[in-house]
Design a protein that fits this description.
Layout: H1 4-19, E1 25-29, H2 30-39, E2 48-49, E3 52-57
Parallel strand pairs: 1-3
Antiparallel strand pairs: 2-3
Amino acid sequence: MITMQKKLERRINNIATIRKEYPKEVAVTRKEFEQLAEETEDRIPLNEFLGVKLKIID
């Protein structure tokens, strides 16, 4: 099973590959955001991942 952290990392890297620079912001669903928070050891919701701001969309 692939983790949300790995999925998000791949998404960010794909955007960086296409644009030749890392994005400043990435849109995630609330479900993805909550799943990412659960995967972190401290279970604190993140507003940033790998230096990229997370924008929650519904």
